[in-house]
Protein backbone atom coordinates (compact mmCIF):
# COMPACT_ATOMS: atom_id res chain seq x y z
CA UNK A 1 0.00 0.00 0.00
CA UNK A 2 1.26 3.45 -0.95
CA UNK A 3 0.67 5.89 1.92
CA UNK A 4 0.89 9.67 1.65
CA UNK A 5 1.11 11.77 4.80
CA UNK A 6 0.24 15.36 3.94
CA UNK A 7 1.57 17.61 6.69
CA UNK A 8 4.51 16.50 8.83
CA UNK A 9 3.80 18.41 12.03
CA UNK A 10 3.20 16.83 15.41
CA UNK A 11 0.40 14.56 14.18
CA UNK A 12 1.55 13.67 10.67
CA UNK A 13 5.19 13.46 11.69
CA UNK A 14 4.55 11.03 14.54
CA UNK A 15 2.04 8.71 12.87
CA UNK A 16 3.74 8.91 9.48
CA UNK A 17 7.05 8.22 11.15
CA UNK A 18 5.65 5.14 12.89
CA UNK A 19 4.28 3.81 9.61
CA UNK A 20 7.61 4.38 7.86
CA UNK A 21 9.50 2.80 10.77
CA UNK A 22 7.35 -0.32 10.29
CA UNK A 23 8.69 -0.62 6.74
CA UNK A 24 5.58 0.64 4.93
CA UNK A 25 5.75 2.74 1.76
CA UNK A 26 5.31 6.24 3.15
CA UNK A 27 5.67 9.48 1.22
CA UNK A 28 5.39 12.85 2.96
CA UNK A 29 4.49 16.38 1.92
CA UNK A 30 6.25 19.03 4.00
CA UNK A 31 7.36 22.64 3.63
CA UNK A 32 10.28 24.99 4.26
CA UNK A 33 13.18 24.19 6.57
CA UNK A 34 11.35 21.15 7.94
CA UNK A 35 11.24 19.68 4.43
CA UNK A 36 14.94 20.37 3.81
CA UNK A 37 15.97 18.83 7.13
CA UNK A 38 13.99 15.63 6.50
CA UNK A 39 15.33 15.33 2.94
CA UNK A 40 18.91 15.72 4.15
CA UNK A 41 18.89 13.84 7.46
CA UNK A 42 15.64 11.89 7.73
CA UNK A 43 12.80 12.40 10.20
CA UNK A 44 13.71 12.11 13.87
CA UNK A 45 11.02 11.32 16.44
CA UNK A 46 11.68 11.68 20.15
CA UNK A 47 8.89 9.82 21.92
CA UNK A 48 7.88 8.66 25.38
CA UNK A 49 7.32 5.31 23.64
CA UNK A 50 10.89 5.17 22.31
CA UNK A 51 12.95 7.32 19.97
CA UNK A 52 13.48 6.46 16.31
CA UNK A 53 14.62 7.94 13.03
CA UNK A 54 13.30 7.16 9.55
CA UNK A 55 13.94 8.00 5.92
CA UNK A 56 10.53 8.03 4.21
CA UNK A 57 10.19 6.74 0.66
CA UNK A 58 9.82 10.33 -0.55
CA UNK A 59 9.64 13.76 1.07
CA UNK A 60 8.57 16.64 -1.15
CA UNK A 61 6.58 19.86 -1.29
CA UNK A 62 4.95 18.85 -4.60
CA UNK A 63 1.96 16.52 -4.54
CA UNK A 64 2.48 15.76 -8.24
CA UNK A 65 5.78 14.02 -7.43
CA UNK A 66 4.45 11.39 -5.02
CA UNK A 67 3.48 7.86 -6.08
CA UNK A 68 -0.27 7.42 -6.61
CA UNK A 69 -1.47 6.90 -3.01
CA UNK A 70 -3.84 4.22 -1.76
CA UNK A 71 -4.18 5.98 1.61
CA UNK A 72 -3.78 9.69 2.36
CA UNK A 73 -3.44 10.74 6.00
CA UNK A 74 -4.08 14.44 6.58
CA UNK A 75 -1.80 15.89 9.26
CA UNK A 76 -2.78 19.52 8.66
CA UNK A 77 -4.92 22.04 10.57
CA UNK A 78 -8.68 21.97 10.01
CA UNK A 79 -8.69 25.42 8.38
CA UNK A 80 -6.24 24.16 5.74
CA UNK A 81 -8.51 21.36 4.50
CA UNK A 82 -10.22 23.16 1.58
CA UNK A 83 -6.96 24.34 0.02
CA UNK A 84 -5.24 20.97 0.52
CA UNK A 85 -8.24 19.03 -0.84
CA UNK A 86 -8.05 21.03 -4.07
CA UNK A 87 -4.31 20.32 -4.30
CA UNK A 88 -4.91 16.60 -3.79
CA UNK A 89 -7.71 16.28 -6.33
CA UNK A 90 -5.46 15.32 -9.31
CA UNK A 91 -3.97 12.30 -7.49
CA UNK A 92 -7.24 10.91 -6.10
CA UNK A 93 -8.08 7.60 -7.78
CA UNK A 94 -11.35 5.71 -7.59
CA UNK A 95 -10.14 3.65 -4.61
CA UNK A 96 -7.96 6.23 -2.82
CA UNK A 97 -8.79 6.47 0.88
CA UNK A 98 -8.52 9.82 2.69
CA UNK A 99 -8.25 9.82 6.49
CA UNK A 100 -8.53 13.22 8.23
CA UNK A 101 -7.13 13.41 11.78
CA UNK A 102 -7.81 17.10 12.49
CA UNK A 103 -9.52 18.61 15.50
CA UNK A 104 -12.92 20.02 14.63
CA UNK A 105 -16.42 18.68 14.01
CA UNK A 106 -16.89 19.20 10.27
CA UNK A 107 -13.70 18.00 8.57
CA UNK A 108 -15.53 15.23 6.73
CA UNK A 109 -18.07 17.72 5.41
CA UNK A 110 -15.31 20.08 4.23
CA UNK A 111 -13.66 17.27 2.28
CA UNK A 112 -16.94 16.09 0.73
CA UNK A 113 -17.52 19.58 -0.67
CA UNK A 114 -14.41 19.15 -2.85
CA UNK A 115 -13.60 15.44 -3.20
CA UNK A 116 -15.75 12.36 -3.96
CA UNK A 117 -17.59 11.12 -0.88
CA UNK A 118 -16.63 7.52 -1.65
CA UNK A 119 -12.96 8.34 -0.96
CA UNK A 120 -13.39 9.89 2.48
CA UNK A 121 -13.37 8.41 5.97
CA UNK A 122 -14.05 10.18 9.25
CA UNK A 123 -11.37 10.21 11.90
CA UNK A 124 -9.54 11.84 14.78
CA UNK A 125 -6.48 11.21 16.89
CA UNK A 126 -5.11 11.64 20.38
CA UNK A 127 -1.52 12.73 20.89
CA UNK A 128 0.52 15.58 22.36
CA UNK A 129 3.36 16.19 19.92
CA UNK A 130 4.97 19.03 17.99
CA UNK A 131 7.85 20.03 15.74
CA UNK A 132 10.72 20.69 18.14
CA UNK A 133 13.04 21.85 15.35
CA UNK A 134 13.26 21.27 11.58
CA UNK A 135 13.42 17.52 10.99
CA UNK A 136 12.47 16.54 14.53
CA UNK A 137 9.11 15.66 16.12
CA UNK A 138 8.73 15.48 19.87
CA UNK A 139 5.98 13.28 21.29
CA UNK A 140 5.68 14.65 24.82
CA UNK A 141 2.71 12.85 26.37
CA UNK A 142 -0.45 10.82 25.85
CA UNK A 143 -0.73 7.34 24.40
CA UNK A 144 -0.99 7.98 20.64
CA UNK A 145 -4.26 6.70 19.20
CA UNK A 146 -6.21 6.95 15.94
CA UNK A 147 -10.00 6.57 15.94
CA UNK A 148 -11.60 6.22 12.51
CA UNK A 149 -14.49 4.78 10.55
CA UNK A 150 -16.88 4.93 7.65
CA UNK A 151 -19.37 7.78 7.92
CA UNK A 152 -22.20 5.23 8.08
CA UNK A 153 -20.28 3.22 10.74
CA UNK A 154 -20.15 0.11 8.54
CA UNK A 155 -17.22 -2.26 9.12
CA UNK A 156 -16.04 -2.18 5.52
CA UNK A 157 -13.16 -4.17 4.07
CA UNK A 158 -11.02 -1.04 3.69
CA UNK A 159 -11.62 -0.03 7.30
CA UNK A 160 -10.46 -3.42 8.53
CA UNK A 161 -7.42 -3.24 6.23
CA UNK A 162 -6.36 0.13 7.69
CA UNK A 163 -6.88 -1.29 11.17
CA UNK A 164 -4.44 -4.11 10.34
CA UNK A 165 -1.88 -1.65 8.90
CA UNK A 166 -2.00 0.52 12.01
CA UNK A 167 -1.66 -2.57 14.18
CA UNK A 168 1.38 -3.60 12.14
CA UNK A 169 2.96 -0.22 12.84
CA UNK A 170 2.23 -0.48 16.57
CA UNK A 171 -0.26 2.38 16.51
CA UNK A 172 -3.19 1.98 18.88
CA UNK A 173 -6.41 2.39 16.93
CA UNK A 174 -10.15 1.95 17.29
CA UNK A 175 -13.14 1.55 14.97
CA UNK A 176 -16.02 2.88 17.10
CA UNK A 177 -19.72 2.10 16.85
CA UNK A 178 -20.46 5.80 16.23
CA UNK A 179 -17.63 7.80 14.67
CA UNK A 180 -19.56 11.09 14.76
CA UNK A 181 -20.07 10.78 18.51
CA UNK A 182 -16.34 10.16 19.01
CA UNK A 183 -15.46 13.21 16.91
CA UNK A 184 -17.86 15.40 18.90
CA UNK A 185 -16.64 14.08 22.26
CA UNK A 186 -13.12 15.25 21.41
CA UNK A 187 -14.45 18.45 19.87
CA UNK A 188 -16.37 19.17 23.07
CA UNK A 189 -13.11 19.09 25.01
CA UNK A 190 -10.85 20.91 22.58
CA UNK A 191 -13.34 23.67 21.73
CA UNK A 192 -14.17 24.22 25.41
CA UNK A 193 -10.55 24.81 26.43
CA UNK A 194 -9.12 26.44 23.29
CA UNK A 195 -11.17 29.61 22.88
CA UNK A 196 -11.27 30.61 26.52
CA UNK A 197 -7.56 29.80 26.79
CA UNK A 198 -6.82 32.09 23.86
CA UNK A 199 -9.00 34.82 25.33
CA UNK A 200 -7.51 34.73 28.85
CA UNK A 201 -3.96 33.81 27.73
CA UNK A 202 -3.39 31.78 30.87
CA UNK A 203 -2.95 28.00 31.39
CA UNK A 204 -5.84 25.74 32.33
CA UNK A 205 -5.09 25.75 36.07
CA UNK A 206 -5.55 29.54 36.23
CA UNK A 207 -8.93 29.21 34.51
CA UNK A 208 -9.96 26.44 36.92
CA UNK A 209 -9.01 28.59 39.92
CA UNK A 210 -11.38 31.38 38.85
CA UNK A 211 -14.99 30.65 39.79
CA UNK A 212 -16.20 33.05 37.08
CA UNK A 213 -14.00 31.65 34.29
CA UNK A 214 -14.69 28.04 35.27
CA UNK A 215 -18.43 28.72 35.14
CA UNK A 216 -18.00 30.44 31.78
CA UNK A 217 -16.12 27.40 30.50
CA UNK A 218 -18.95 25.07 31.60
CA UNK A 219 -21.55 27.30 29.96
CA UNK A 220 -19.52 27.24 26.75
CA UNK A 221 -19.43 23.43 26.84
CA UNK A 222 -23.20 23.24 27.42
CA UNK A 223 -23.77 25.34 24.30
CA UNK A 224 -21.55 23.00 22.27
CA UNK A 225 -23.58 20.02 23.50
CA UNK A 226 -26.86 21.69 22.54
CA UNK A 227 -25.58 22.43 19.03
CA UNK A 228 -24.40 18.84 18.70
CA UNK A 229 -27.76 17.49 19.85
CA UNK A 230 -29.51 19.71 17.30
CA UNK A 231 -27.35 18.04 14.65
CA UNK A 232 -28.37 14.57 15.85
CA UNK A 233 -25.24 13.81 17.90
CA UNK A 234 -26.21 11.84 21.05
CA UNK A 235 -24.35 14.01 23.56
CA UNK A 236 -25.65 14.32 27.11
CA UNK A 237 -24.70 15.44 30.61
CA UNK A 238 -22.50 12.38 31.04
CA UNK A 239 -20.26 13.67 28.27
CA UNK A 240 -20.16 17.11 29.88
CA UNK A 241 -18.94 15.65 33.17
CA UNK A 242 -16.48 13.38 31.37
CA UNK A 243 -14.91 16.39 29.65
CA UNK A 244 -14.60 18.30 32.90
CA UNK A 245 -12.96 15.34 34.58
CA UNK A 246 -10.31 15.58 31.85
CA UNK A 247 -10.07 19.37 32.21
CA UNK A 248 -9.74 19.09 36.00
CA UNK A 249 -6.99 16.50 35.57
CA UNK A 250 -4.82 18.59 33.23
CA UNK A 251 -1.40 19.44 34.74
CA UNK A 252 -0.64 23.00 35.82
CA UNK A 253 0.70 25.08 32.97
CA UNK A 254 -1.22 23.18 30.27
CA UNK A 255 -2.30 25.17 27.21
CA UNK A 256 -4.12 24.05 24.05
CA UNK A 257 -2.40 24.21 20.65
CA UNK A 258 -5.00 26.61 19.26
CA UNK A 259 -4.53 28.82 22.32
CA UNK A 260 -0.77 28.87 21.67
CA UNK A 261 -1.34 29.78 18.02
CA UNK A 262 -3.58 32.68 19.06
CA UNK A 263 -1.08 33.88 21.65
CA UNK A 264 1.76 33.68 19.10
CA UNK A 265 -0.16 35.67 16.49
CA UNK A 266 -0.52 32.68 14.16
CA UNK A 267 -3.57 31.65 12.14
CA UNK A 268 -5.57 29.32 14.37
CA UNK A 269 -8.58 27.01 14.38
CA UNK A 270 -10.85 29.65 15.96
CA UNK A 271 -13.21 29.64 12.96
CA UNK A 272 -13.45 25.84 13.13
CA UNK A 273 -14.05 25.78 16.87
CA UNK A 274 -16.03 28.59 18.52
CA UNK A 275 -16.82 30.18 15.15
CA UNK A 276 -18.32 26.91 13.93
CA UNK A 277 -20.51 26.63 17.03
CA UNK A 278 -21.74 30.21 16.58
CA UNK A 279 -22.60 29.65 12.91
CA UNK A 280 -24.24 26.27 13.42
CA UNK A 281 -26.13 27.57 16.44
CA UNK A 282 -27.56 30.40 14.36
CA UNK A 283 -28.48 27.99 11.56
CA UNK A 284 -30.17 25.53 13.92
CA UNK A 285 -31.82 28.04 16.24
CA UNK A 286 -29.58 27.26 19.24
CA UNK A 287 -28.42 30.22 21.32
CA UNK A 288 -24.65 30.36 21.85
CA UNK A 289 -23.92 33.64 23.71
CA UNK A 290 -20.75 32.47 25.51
CA UNK A 291 -19.18 31.02 22.38
CA UNK A 292 -20.12 34.13 20.45
CA UNK A 293 -18.49 36.35 23.08
CA UNK A 294 -15.27 34.32 22.91
CA UNK A 295 -15.36 34.22 19.12
CA UNK A 296 -16.06 37.92 18.55
CA UNK A 297 -13.34 38.96 21.03
CA UNK A 298 -10.74 36.81 19.27
CA UNK A 299 -11.88 37.37 15.69
CA UNK A 300 -9.96 40.65 15.06
CA UNK A 301 -6.70 38.98 16.14
CA UNK A 302 -7.47 35.97 13.95
CA UNK A 303 -8.14 38.16 10.93
CA UNK A 304 -4.86 40.03 11.49
CA UNK A 305 -2.97 36.72 11.76
CA UNK A 306 -4.52 35.50 8.51
CA UNK A 307 -3.56 38.69 6.69
CA UNK A 308 0.03 38.55 7.91
CA UNK A 309 0.41 34.92 6.81
CA UNK A 310 -0.67 35.59 3.21
Word description of this protein:
It is a single chain. The protein is of the alpha/beta class. The protein has two domains: 2-177, NAD(P)-binding Rossmann-like Domain (Rossmann fold, 3-Layer(aba) Sandwich), CATH 3.40.50.720; 180-309, N-(1-d-carboxylethyl)-l-norvaline Dehydrogenase, domain 2 (Orthogonal Bundle). It is 47% helix and 19% strand. The chain contains twelve helices and ten strands. It has helices at 10-21, 32-41, 81-88, 107-112, 157-168, 179-200, 204-209, 211-230, 237-248, 257-263, 274-284, 289-309; strands at 2-6, 25-29, 43-47, 52-54, 58-60, 71-74, 97-100, 122-133, 136-149, 172-174. The strands form two sheets. It has a five-stranded parallel β-sheet with strand order 5-2-1-6-7, covered by helices on one side. Strands 3, 4, 8, 9 and 10 form a five-stranded mixed β-sheet that branches. α6 packs antiparallel against α8 (211-230) and α6 runs parallel beside α10 (257-263). The two termini are 36 Å apart. Residues 3-152 form the Ketopantoate reductase N-terminal domain. Keywords: NADP, Oxidoreductase, Pantothenate biosynthesis. Residues 178-302 form the Ketopantoate reductase C-terminal domain. Catalyzes the NADPH-dependent reduction of ketopantoate into pantoic acid. GO terms for molecular function: 2-dehydropantoate 2-reductase activity.
Amino acid sequence: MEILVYGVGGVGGYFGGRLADAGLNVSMVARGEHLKAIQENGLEVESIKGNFKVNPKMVTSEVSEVPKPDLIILGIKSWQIPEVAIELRPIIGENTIILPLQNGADNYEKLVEILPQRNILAGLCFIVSFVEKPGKIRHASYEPKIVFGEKDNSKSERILKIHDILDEAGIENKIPDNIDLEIWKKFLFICTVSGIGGLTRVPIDKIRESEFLYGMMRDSAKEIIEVGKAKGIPLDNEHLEMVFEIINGQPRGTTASTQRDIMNGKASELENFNGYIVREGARLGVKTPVNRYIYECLKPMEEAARRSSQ
